[in-house]
Amino acid sequence: MIKVLIAEDEFPLLRGIAKLIEKADQDFSVVMLAKNGKEALEYLENHEVDVVFTDINMPLVDGLQILKYIKEEKPWIISVVISGYQDFSYAQQAIRYEAKRYLIKPIENHELCVLLQELKDQILSQKETKKDMLLKKLLFGKKQIGNSEYESRNSEEKIEFRNVYPVYMVAKAYCTSNIEESEFDSEFWNNVDFRIFLKNEIQSLIGTYTYYGKYLNEIIVLLETEATENIELTVAKYLQRKEHIFPIAIIAGDVCTDIFEIGNIVSQLRKKLRRNWKYGRCEVINEDNKCSLFRMKKSTEESLQYMIKQGKFKGFQELLTEIQKQMEEENITQYDLEETLKKILMFIQTYETGFLNEEISNPTREINDIIMRSNSLSEIFEEFVFWCQRLMFPKAEENTAALVRRVDAFIQDHYTERITTKMLAQEFGLVPSYLSRLFREYKGVTPNHYIQNIRIERSKEMLLNCPTVMTKDIALMVGYVDASYFFKVFKKNTGLSPSEYRMNELSK
């Protein structure tokens, strides 16, 4: 509801304007009828309103003093002058105090309706922006925010929320380290019609606030509604309605009673989703789909250890195939999948005498990287088996420096194409995590970052040498299909947008 104060010393006219406003648009509520400027100021000092309609000539305190107070003390309030005078000097002073409109009595109904719609659009837009800024701060800013942070621009301007429901969404798989843009289309969420669906399904929806999570493949959606809603049922309906490019997991929280806690609530939803999302499934995570802990059979564990000790890789591989089948039958969660693969690595580390510790710098990250690169359980096991073979039977590689030079040359020749670490590993017959580690040791960055750096440097050259070529075309020419993602990467690397960089450099 948009709160309105009207200041007018002619009482019949005061009541008439109030009726006109409330009749013209039910979203406006006249909360104060001030018979003079003094009453208006006293109310404004202790209450919040969105719009003030004021006459100019009033006893005790005139309308210009009200306008001055609003501009200096509460600049977010929109002021409208109602006057019986067509005096140009009054209009000039009203403009100086940033009045939205100068209306001449008597007010025409059509003119008022047009003005109210303009006011509503402006106020709702301002409120949406303020809410968005606060929610970003609560989600991504300080861990604890005091009450003063709940206020925007001015200590007396409160931001009010109705019912806020948090929804956390992840596509493909849960990420714990990083995901390359080439392995997950950054435009994926733009093509997901979730917001449109919610708008059509939830009649009391006031606003939808969407934010990218920590990684490209996750988003946070905060829904503000007028009434209480069954959000879990709504998101379940969304998942059932069509096929998706990647598996999507959604978890919806209960209505948030304290907006300051929204960051903690989303964090808890994230943890709950990680523990309960069945790998490769589109599903809503709730109390009903809690999963039992996956355990390898004791006989399988003992056989694995035996095969590792004896160096019998074929038998080891057959056991992994059995484990994969067991996982498929039991609909394993990604969390248990990662824990099981880490346990197998621990067996190799413990029982394989030829094992080199430096082959595994961070098991948790490297296993998650395998999962993020893969599109199925069979792909995960295929890469994992290849990695285990290398760990169990290390063999002499070609000179590492020579290998990195070959990879570098390949990247230089193909950087304009879609290249991933997985593709490079297949090209050179290596495990992606191992290739990435070798490359980082010699180049100081991963292959993915190296490719990104080359593309940015080439784009800089083209921005300066080809001033008539549009930046979106340069993005395509250096290997970025998504121009908006190119702009984001370019600014992150240079601190400037492509057009700003071009302008700055060419003006030197």
TrEMBL record:
Please give the SMART domains that the UniProt record associates with this protein.
HTH_ARAC (SM00342), REC (SM00448)
Q: Where is the Response regulatory domain?
A: 3-120
The chain positions of domain HTH araC/xylS-type read 405-504
> Modified residue 4-aspartylphosphate is at which positions?
55
Q: Which UniProt keywords apply?
A: DNA-binding, Phosphoprotein, Transcription, Transcription regulation
Q: Name one GO biological process term.
A: phosphorelay signal transduction system
Superkingdom of this protein's organism? Bacteria
The molecular function terms in GO held by this entry are: DNA-binding transcription factor activity; sequence-specific DNA binding
Question: Per its UniProt record, what Pfam families does this chain match?
Answer: HTH_18, Response_reg
Which purpose does this protein serve, as stated in its record? May play the central regulatory role in sporulation. It may be an element of the effector pathway responsible for the activation of sporulation genes in response to nutritional stress. Spo0A may act in concert with spo0H (a sigma factor) to control the expression of some genes that are critical to the sporulation process.
Q: What name goes with this protein? A: Stage 0 sporulation protein A homolog
Per the UniProt entry, what species is this protein from, by scientific name? Answer: Mediterraneibacter gnavus (Ruminococcus gnavus)
